[in-house]
Amino acid sequence: KIWIGKNLNDTLAFHFTGNGFVVGGECRMTNGPGHETSNDKYATVEVFIDGKLSETVKLPVNPITRRHEICWNYQLPEKKHEVELRLIHPDPEIECFLSEFMYYSHMAAK
After folding, report:
1. What DSSP state is assigned to residue 107?
2. Buried b / exposed e across 20-34, counting CB within 10 Å, b at 16+?
3. Among 56, 80, 82, residue whose Cα is nearest residue 70
4. Which of 46, 58, 77, 96 has the highest CB neighbour count under 10 A?
5. From CA 29, how far away is CA 91, in angstroms rounded?
6. Do the Cβ atoms of 57 and 44 come closer than 8 Å?
7. pLDDT value at position 108?
8. Which regions of the chain are under pLDDT 70?
9. CA–CA separation, 3 vs 19, rounded Å?
10. Are 80 and 15 in contact (CB under 8 A)?
11. Distance CA 83, CA 62 (A)
12. pTM for the structure as a whole
């Protein structure tokens, strides 16, 4: 597990050797809690794995519908990978906080 602890402002890439990963985090309003429950705003993030678009994720700020994992994929071949996140059409009222990057492998840790 690797702590990120920052907002996605445009693009961010991760490199790892393994067969799966999870990026933890959430999207929230920049003006703080209490403004999110009745809000239908969301951030859009494109997820690229090894240079290919894997998915486009809509990340609501509403805590009822919010995702606490930005993205994940557990079915990759065991090898070196690059995961790139691209924030599409940033909104100054929304921050996309990335908490951690976790990756998985069948190989024993050295």
Report:
1. S
2. bbbbbbbbbbeeeee
3. 56
4. 96
5. 10
6. yes
7. 57
8. 32-38, 108-110
9. 19
10. yes
11. 26
12. 0.89
